[in-house]
Amino acid sequence: MYDIVNGLINTTFGWNWPGWVIALISHLLVTTLLFAIAPFQMLFLTYYERRAIARMQDRIGPNRVGPAGLLQPIADGVKMFTKEDIVPAAADRWVHFLAPCVVVAPTMLMFAVLPWGPGMVPVDLNVGLLFFFAISSISAVGLLMAGLASSNKFALLGAMRAVAQMVSYEIPAVLSLLAVVMLTGTLSIVQLIEAQAGLFISSADVPGVPDLGLGWFIFTPVGLLAFIVFFIAALAEGERTPFDIPEADSEIVAGYMTEYSGMKFGLFYLAQYVLNFLLCAIAAVIFFGGWQGPGVGWLYDRAISPANPDGNWVFNLLAGFLGVFYLLAKTYAFFFVMVWLRGAFPRLRVDQLMDFGWKFLIPLTLVNIVSAAIWVALLRWGPEQGITFTQNWTPILRWGVAFAVTLAVNIVAYIALARIFAASQAEQGRIDLDEYRDTLTATLR
Amino acid sequence: MATVIQIIFGLIAALIVGAAVMVVTVRNVIHAALWLIACFFGVGALYLLLEAEFLAVVQVLVYVGAISILILFAIMLTRQVTGEGVRQLVGGWRLWLTAAISALLFAVAIVPTVISHSWNVPAPPAPPGTPEPLAGVAELGRAFVYEFLLQFQVAGVLLTVALIGAIVIAFEERARRRRVLTLAEEHELRKRLAHPPPVEAPAGEPAPAPRATPISEGEVQQ
Amino acid sequence: MLANYAFIAIFFVAAVTFPLAPLVLAFFLRPKRPTPIKQSTYECGLEAIGDLRVQFKVQYYLYALAFVIFDIEVVFLYPWAVAFNQLGLYGFTAAAVFLIILTAGLIYEWRKGALEWV
Questions:
Q1: Nearest by CB: A185 against C29, C54, C85
Q2: Burial code of C71-93, b = ≥16 C-beta within 10 A, e = fewer?
Q3: For residues B144 and C81, what is the distance between their CA atoms, to the nearest angstrom?
Q4: Which of A300, A420, B190, C43 is positioned for an S-S bond with A319, CB 3.0–4.6 A?
Q5: Which domains does chain B possess?
Q6: What is the DSSP letter of A64?
Q7: Are residues A6 and A149 in the same domain?
Q8: Which residue, A36, A60, A77, sits at the end of a domain?
Q9: Is the distance from CB of A126 to CB of A188 less than 8 angstroms?
Q10: C56: nearest CA partner in chain B
């Protein structure tokens, strides 16, 4: 963006404005653009979800407002604006007012590090990945504020559940990303995407692989396991079914949103869908190459970029469009999976949710870290790192051995941990039943 | 540029100090916790201003995202949230005396540092060609392993000890708790109580006929 | 480098104003007719019964504490993971010991039954 604005103002118009003014203008432009895109994503996703879930339930879904019901989200938005804002008399007014803002603001801030296409990243931080998840953890505070301020039992229960759930599934999410960080050695999201060029095998692992933009981490055993864990954790973080315990409407009304109406409720809704979009997008970016795909690399090589200042801007446009298209296609595909899960699965129980996170996903990610270490050791390390036996192997042999070993480790770990988990659950159920039987027989006597 | 940074620093510092003052003066414990979170966030912004981006992110991740939740949960474990009607431990001149002693102790700790530290020394110019000292995360990782290995491991032990300590202090043995069974489990239980499982019943056979004394609905309800 | 943070700062200001804008707009559009019944606490159509301040289970706190501890562990491990490519077997062993210590804590918690939601 900086380059474009710079080219327009200083080269085309010849005004010679100082760099910081141009930086400011480009920053403001990017910010405005992103903040305009985000609500539309939310509107589209609500429509998308309602139509898709309706199909699964053999209904039609919203189809009256506008062509095929496309304007339904707009109508809902208008409704939100014109609804009365009811604040319970017992509520803590200021905290009640601030809570939706505290939930929405971090979600929007997460857009700051999400790359949309080649060279199209708002800001490429060195610690982008960690920034993303650090910011996402703030909204838990907002949820707790909503629950505490409403002075409503359902709201409080919902908030406690929501936060306990987010807290439990943030660890598997962050630990599964740790494995990917070990593979790439960077926390910058842009470099993470660039490492996923190639064709099935990443170009970073084996030199000479043709670059079709398909060297995604999902094709490595480490990445696959990390993705599964991450996606489950993302479902829990985004409060999607089967992890929608915090707002289980058949149990606790609407959870922490119970006492919210009008636009404040709308903000919670917005935050939730934007968060779902971001989680799908970051899953696509980390494990499915983000904007990487056939053709993008080829186009971007001919475009204007820091590496190639005398390219053609047409290629910038084409690469950008294709990259954004790939990213959005992957993101919506993931969101479809989320909707599909909602259509297919019932809600979990709180104890099942907690057990699954702490007793299965976290051990799995810990094994995956060891697996990632094996991968890096076999593929990249030489004598100076303490690995000598791979010295004479060809890169492709190294890759094959690493693939086989990590795959074996991950499969064995998955089966073993699943058995341990199942045994522990069965044991737990048995103990509970025995205990309850004892008390019950004592009562009956 | 330097002035702009100083102004931003002033704003962030004001936020931190203001939030900290609110923490200790507000009567509602929840509000105090929220002000504390604002304070944590300000410290994160301060780190970012110092170009310590990893520390800034960690500050947000650990303090704003985790410690604050811990504090709020701890408040939820107590019954009294608003401070109305709570008797203060000390009041009047004794309060001021306590404050003075605390301030004095803090001054003893901080004043020598403030006096002995050489402020306003410009950073030595880096020789040309040195990379920007901002790729700090990898260096931090190397330092953990090579220079601060002992501290690194001690931190691990400390975290584990904290975990075990919390369990020892706060955890109730399960014998003292009762779990609410799901409908399916209760059904299963009733079946078991009504007909104790026969020892050599092969799987797949139809369930045996009800015994003489099945538990009636009313009895279980009691 | 500071330019990046300047962008984050701009973005932060925008992110904070973003939720306020629709709230302000809605303030002018929406009706405002509060009544005591409307403003009473919602409880499935009944009047709210009992004290709101139920004492929550200590389980919540234990989970939060375990979360804090694992969060800090993650924070320690991320720099190690970034530098992992250059660390070699020695670096791997160091982190493995660190991980084993923490996993021991997790196993203790599991065996003790503190991870059970009752």
A1: C85
A2: bbbbbbbbbbbbbbbbbbeebbe
A3: 11
A4: A300
A5: 1-83 (1.20.120.1200), 136-196 (no CATH)
A6: S
A7: no
A8: A77
A9: yes
A10: B77
Count CB neighbours of B14 within 10 A: 11
Q: Is residue C8 part of a domain?
A: yes
Q: Is residue A441 assigned to a domain?
A: no
Residue of C nearest to A140 (CA): C64
**Residues A55 and A176 occupy one common structural domain:** no
Domain of A302, in residue numbers: 83-374
- Token code pair at residue C73: 């562990």
Residue C31 belongs to some domain of the structure? yes
Q: Which of A176, A171, A54, A195 is nearest to A115 (CA)?
A: A195
- Tell me: do A28 and A94 sit in the same domain: no
Determine the 3-state secondary structure of B205 from DSSP.
Answer: coil
Over residues C6-57, the pLDDT tens digits come to 788 888 888 888 888 888 888 888 777 777 777 777 776 666 666 666 667 7
In a domain, A434, yes or no: no
Q: What is the pLDDT of residues A345-385, one digit of tens each?
A: 888 877 788 888 888 898 899 899 988 888 888 887 777 77
| Chain C residues whose beta carbon lies within 8 Å of the beta carbon of residue A125 | 4, 8
Q: What is the 3-state secondary structure (H, E, C) of C25-75?
A: HHHHHCCCCCCCCCCCCCCCCCCCCCCCCCCCCHHHHHHHHHHHHHHHHHH
Q: What is the ipTM of this complex?
A: 0.86
Model-level pTM? 0.84
- Tell whether C101 lies on the interface with B, counting CB pairs under 8 A: yes
Interchain contact B134–A (C-beta under 8 A): yes
**Residue A146 and residue A18 in one domain:** no
A2 is a domain residue: yes
Q: Does A87 touch chain C (CB under 8 A)?
A: yes
- B167, two tokens: 């369990």
Same domain assignment for residues A184 and A316: yes
Helices (H), A110-188: 128-136, 139-150, 153-184
Q: How many CB atoms lie within 10 A of CB A188?
A: 21
Buried b (16+ CB within 10 A) or exposed e, B141-163: bbbbbeeebeebbebbeebbebb
> Which residue among A374, A401, A421 closes a domain?
A374
Instruction: For the beta carbon of residue A120, count every other beta carbon within 10 angstroms.
Output: 18
Q: How many residue pairs from chains A and C have C-beta atoms closer than 8 A?
A: 203
Domain count within chain C: 1
